[in-house]
Fold this protein.
Amino acid sequence: MGHGKLNSKINVMVVGGGGREHALCWKIAQSQFAGDIYCAPGNGGTAQDARISNVDLQVSDFAGLSEFAQNNKIDFVVIGPDNPLADGIVDFMEAKGLTVFGPKKEAAKLEWSKAHSKQFMLEHKIPTARFTVVHDFEAAQKFIKENEWARVIKADGLALGKGVFVCNSESEAVDALTAIFKEGRFGEAGSTVVIEEKLIGEELSLLLLIDGKSVMPLSACQDHKRRFDGDKGPNTGGMGAYSPVRLFDKNKSLIEAQVIKPIEEALKNGSLDFKGMLFAGILVGLPASSDGTAPPSNNELIPYALEFNARFGDPETQALMPRLKSDILPLLWASAQGCLADEQIEWFDKASVCVVLSARDYPESSSKGKAIEVDDLPADVCIFHAGTQLKDGKLLTNGGRVLALTALGDNIEAARNNAYKAIKQVRFADMACRSDIALKEVGQCLST
Ligand code: AMP
Ligand code: GLY
């Protein structure tokens, strides 16, 4: 396969086995450039799709995956999850001569070190919460005692989304520091800690496709991280998402000027060397008042970057793929080849809502080996599997977040109705979901 723009069919392997990877495979399978498609390790959903072959290799098996790619004439490898990126899968595979979508280890540091990521934001004047970086319990405790604003505690490294503590008091912050430093709950990932100012506002996910030189923003999404309705309960890998997001449209020029432009400049002046997907978690809001409550509402809101991820979001990707009109393969390929400026991205003029169906006790526990029944779904509803397995031709549960339904509609309200209606077509024991995905957005749509 030559370099530059994609102009013939290619064999593709997607690395990962969640809903994000199923959604990517589903979209890749519609590409005019798709040859054979593999998913490693994949899940029950990718196994059921005749266009996709599962590969029984784990995402950490860099040597096995590279050998499989070479033996099966795979032209392009697309990396889904954060851990292999942080461990240098792209460096490893490129050294073997493979073409890979995703950032190298050093570039992925924007995700695997929150301290590094905050430093990057500071240097490039991207608005972010005030912060400090500490390496031991005593210094951390002293800092939160002396600085009333310092109430958000973050383990520096990857912690399955569980390393962030948004605290309401000094004593809660001390408890978080105890869990990280004294109990060692996050191991090496918690040897460094970022302490931040607490912000209050609305969040959105902005995915930026990057080829080392230029930035192509995707349509904005909103995730629902908490387990229960009303954003209550523990944090999860994501209980649902929707796109587009009115909050983005309202703040578009600010976000472009204060987040996207500095990233473009960093790429141009050589201080950022990144290709793949850069995912910015953005909070449009303000620092909390000193008592932790919302500040007066007449203050001008600012788009703060909360964090960067070096990959596609999950479940954001499951909300985005059905809305994407463009062929995805030329875009991913152009990111890897450095020719994104020649590409364009188009979206269907539809909204999407993705509702995750999980095990009842997720995230405390998961579901294994329970039969899943899926009746026929309407044409505008997609099913993306995560914790499922195909065993002896039977679809079984195999995880906490089992699968997700993404519905399209003429607007968010219609998409939301379609998604919730479709849930009746899916059954497994102790199935659960949030009932308020995208509800706030519908409320906003009705009131404007
Ligand atoms: P992160 O992994 O850094 O995005 O943090 C996870 C979640 O914690 C975010 O989605 C926010 O809901 C919350 N969070 C992170 N940083 C802050 C902050 N400085 N102020 C308030 N909430 C925050
Ligand atoms: N939805 C948040 C993430 O993918 O990290």
Observations:
- The first strand starts at residue 10 and ends at 16.
